[in-house]
């Protein structure tokens, strides 16, 4: 198999058993890699309705066929599991260099099962696998744990670990790799913590085989040239980082402020990419095999603290969503999230929800919008589950529901929404509502065509045509997540370029149409998995505020999300029933025969 080593490493923490399995060529042909194969493994192996924090849950670390080849933006990795925050199937992705190093061990996938009797870490040195005691690093933050593990193993190894938040099974905790990169969303850190697993350390020397090196080099150059010519990947992201979007999204009135009570933040420029560049930027940071370099190494001069970020979503979640304009306070809170192992989006959004609960008298605490120092203190409390932090550690949905007003949680399927108010972006509203993992902009980045004009600009307030475009982007995104490439590549590359890269590497025939169909197959398998867990049309919705309360100012004034007509059309085009269940014909067409058996039984019942 070209593009693959053909090996899955399975580690059972309960009995410390380690074994190798052959990666099925059928899996690779139908699901590509990363997200796709990870979802397939869990679909086949997890029993319905298991507790995500029980030993029965599994963590699948996955690479893609392009990982380790030098293909543009291919230095990524994904983790797939059942989310303890949402209960949905969930995949979370991270950049940096961990993914390439993991592939170099000779294993395409690492499946973590069971629960260790002691605090442990896994050390994979090429094909040598050890499960070792983590007693002396349990309790350390991600930076200190990483430094310690590199001293114990190999200074050139890469580490993915949890911080105190994951150890405490905080539902909005993440897995941090390369010190400042994160498998950020869905509570991945909590699942790892529930298994008493502190870290995975990887080092390898095995190269990824390429079927046609000359053809690959031509395809790679074509991809790099497209990235160099696109104004967003050529200028915007390298110059200002992802926070280049702050002023753009704020200007159109879709920058959620004070827990989505407004769509315009009057102090947006104080936390923008331009201001980050001017005040705290030290240098650009790039992931493996990437020419975009959108990462930011930053420093707070007053405290001499340094790290990476904040990114766009972070500067919004810990900033505008909480009404905070203090860039240094936001940056400090971001550093703490990286060190403690917290998802910045869910952390900031949950704090914003708590602030509104206080504002409206539901929560008898002193929390107010605009208090940056309070945000910093709350980040620490959440990670340690200390005081009010324990309530916030479960995410905004559970927090708001506990106080009798779940409508104040700006979430879908219990996952907090990112930094785009869908009242100003109708397509994003549909993308949030129908996302397989809960509110997510990366399942279908409709901002690309509703704001940035990539590949073309459409009216952001219209609903017509949005189901078709959302489905197309969902399918392409599922394929990209399975290759695995960065979503920013989607701004410059088209499916035909992806197909050329895959064909050159694997030796299999790929077309743009096959790429899209593969993504469709993955998205439908995820849907069946979620249906099996009890999700359906009732869950494909948005917070009441976005459906009923118009924005009162800004360039999206008087708008709400007109969701239901888009949902009806979306289901029809997807080949799903009116309740959102993939039909037998759709599953057969996509060769999802195991999933089809479940749906047959469901319809029989």
Widest sheet, order of strands: 2-1-6-3-4-5
CATH architecture of the largest domain: 4-Layer Sandwich
Compute the gyration radius: what is it?
A: 22 Å
Gross morphology is: globular
Low-confidence stretches: none
Provide the CATH top-level class of the largest domain.
Alpha Beta
| CATH homologous superfamily (4th level) name of the largest domain | Aldehyde ferredoxin oxidoreductase, N-terminal domain
CATH topology of the largest domain: Aldehyde Ferredoxin Oxidoreductase,  A, domain 1
Distance between the terminal alpha carbons, to the nearest Å? 42 Å
Helix count equals 25
Range of helix content: 40-55%
Would you report the number of β strands? 17
Taken as a percent bin, the fraction of beta residues is 5-15%
**Domains (count):** 3
The major beta sheet can be summarized as: 6 strands, mixed
Look at the helices and sheets and give the structural class.
Answer: alpha+beta
Q: What is the average per-residue confidence, as pLDDT, rounded to a whole number?
A: 97
Give the arrangement of secondary structure elements.
Layout: E1 7-12, E2 17-22, H1 25-31, H2 34-45, E3 59-62, E4 77-82, E5 89-94, H3 98-104, E6 109-113, E7 120-125, E8 128-133, H4 142-152, E9 158-161, H5 164-167, E10 175-177, E11 181-183, H6 188-194, E12 197-203, H7 213-229, H8 231-240, H9 245-251, H10 273-279, E13 281-285, E14 295-300, E15 305-308, H11 312-317, H12 327-340, H13 344-359, H14 372-384, H15 388-392, H16 396-402, E16 411-412, E17 415-416, H17 426-434, H18 447-452, H19 466-483, H20 495-506, H21 512-532, H22 544-548, H23 563-574, H24 584-589, H25 593-604
Parallel strand pairs: 1-6, 7-12
Antiparallel strand pairs: 1-2, 3-4, 3-6, 4-5, 7-8, 9-10, 9-12, 10-11, 13-14, 14-15, 16-17
Helix pairs in contact: 1-2, 2-19, 2-21, 7-20, 12-14, 13-16, 17-19, 19-21, 19-23, 20-21
């Amino acid at each position: 198999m070209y593009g693959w080593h053909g090996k899955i490493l399975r580690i059972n923490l309960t009995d410390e058993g380690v074994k190798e399995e052959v990666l099925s060529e059928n899996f690779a042909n139908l699901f590509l890699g990363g997200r796709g194969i990870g979802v397939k493994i869990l679909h086949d192996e997890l029993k319905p309705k298991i507790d995500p924090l029980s030993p029965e849950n599994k963590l699948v670390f996955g690479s893609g066929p392009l990982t380790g080849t030098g293909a543009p933006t291919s230095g990524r990795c994904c983790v797939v599991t059942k989310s303890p925050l949402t209960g949905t199937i969930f995949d979370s992705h991270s950049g940096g260099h961990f993914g390439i190093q993991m592939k170099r061990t000779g294993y395409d996938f690492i499946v973590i099962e069971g629960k260790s009797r002691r605090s442990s870490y896994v050390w994979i040195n090429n094909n040598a696998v050890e499960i070792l005691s983590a007693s002396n690093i349990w309790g350390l933050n991600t930076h200190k744990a990483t430094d310690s593990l590199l001293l114990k193993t190999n200074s050139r190894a890469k580490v993915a670990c949890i911080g105190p938040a994951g150890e405490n099974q905080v539902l909005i905790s993440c897995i941090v790799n390369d010190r400042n990169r994160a498998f950020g969303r869905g509570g991945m850190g909590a699942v790892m913590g529930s298994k008493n697993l502190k870290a995975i350390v990887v080092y390898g020397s095995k190269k990824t085989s390429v079927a046609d090196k000359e053809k690959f080099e031509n395809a790679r150059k074509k991809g790099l040239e497209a990235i160099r010519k696109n104004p967003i990947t050529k200028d915007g992201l390298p110059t200002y980082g992802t926070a280049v979007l702050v002023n753009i999204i704020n200007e159109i009135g879709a920058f959620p402020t004070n827990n989505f009570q407004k769509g315009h933040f009057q102090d947006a420029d104080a936390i923008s990419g331009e201001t980050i560049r001017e005040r705290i930027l030290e240098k650009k940071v790039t992931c493996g095999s990437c020419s975009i370099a959108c990462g930011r190494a930053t420093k707070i001069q007053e405290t001499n603290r340094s790290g990476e970020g904040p990114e766009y979503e972070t500067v919004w979640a810990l900033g505008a969503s909480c009404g905070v304009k203090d860039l240094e306070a936001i940056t400090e809170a971001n550093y703490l999230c990286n060190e403690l192992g917290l998802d910045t989006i869910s952390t900031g959004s949950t704090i914003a929800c708590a602030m509104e609960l206080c504002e409206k008298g539901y929560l008898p605490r002193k929390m107010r919008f605009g208090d940056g120092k309070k945000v910093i203190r709350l980040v620490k409390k959440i990670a340690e589950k200390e005081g009010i932090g324990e309530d916030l550690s479960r995410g905004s949905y559970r927090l708001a529901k506990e106080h009798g007003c779940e409508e104040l949680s700006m979430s879908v399927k219990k996952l907090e929404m990112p930094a785009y108010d869908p009242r100003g972006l109708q397509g994003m509203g549909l993308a949030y509502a129908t996302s397989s993992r809960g509110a997510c902009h990366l399942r279908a980045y409709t901002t690309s065509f509703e704001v940035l004009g990539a590949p073309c600009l459409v009216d952001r307030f219209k609903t017509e045509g949005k189901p078709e475009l959302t489905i197309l982007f969902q399918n392409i995104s599922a394929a990209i997540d399975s290759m695995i490439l960065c979503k920013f590549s989607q701004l410059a590359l088209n499916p035909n370029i992806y197909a050329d890269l895959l064909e050159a590497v694997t030796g299999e025939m790929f077309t743009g149409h096959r790429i899209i169909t593969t993504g469709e197959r993955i998205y439908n398998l995820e849907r069946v998995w979620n249906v099996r867990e009890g999700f359906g049309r009732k869950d494909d919705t948005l917070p009441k505020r976005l459906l009923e309360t118009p924005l009162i100012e800004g360039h999206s004034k008087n708008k709400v999300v007109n969701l239901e007509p888009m949902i009806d059309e979306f289901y029809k085009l997807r080949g799903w029933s009116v309740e959102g269940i993939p039909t037998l014909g759709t599953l057969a067409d996509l060769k999802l025969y195991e999933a089809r058996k479940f749906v047959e039984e469901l319809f029989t019942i």
